[in-house]
């Protein structure tokens, strides 16, 4: 009788341990999202979660340019006075970075559109005057919770 209580308590403890691990194991962290995007730099099929896309967006458009600008301000303070008149000393580094991330950025953008059940070709409306609005809406909305024509939902759904 006592062993039955112990086995029930052990089963409950294992169940609680698994559920607590499950809640954090599938979370996409900032660094995991960056690694995923660089790892899938030529993968244009499948789907990308909102967190994967927006973490990479944050990395590519805010974190890296800010860091390069900060370094530039420390080592080349005189360039801050002429910032609007001539290129800054490390502009070449930022240009090289954007060249380096072009494919991973394009791939995650297309996979994010797939998550909202839109073809990757919709990225072309970005080049119209008003096309940015629907793209921004699609990038911000939740992905399909069920399978769509581009694959299974990304777990965790975000």
From TrEMBL:
Alphabetized InterPro entries for the sequence: DUF805
Transmembrane regions listed in the UniProt entry: 53-76, 88-108, 120-139
One Gene Ontology term, aspect cellular component: plasma membrane
Keywords on record: Membrane, Transmembrane, Transmembrane helix
Keyword Cell inner membrane found: no
Alphabetical list of Pfam families matching this protein: DUF805
PANTHER family the UniProt entry points to: INNER MEMBRANE PROTEIN YHAH-RELATED, INNER MEMBRANE PROTEIN-RELATED-RELATED
Name listed for the protein in its UniProt record: DUF805 domain-containing protein
Source organism per UniProt: marine metagenome
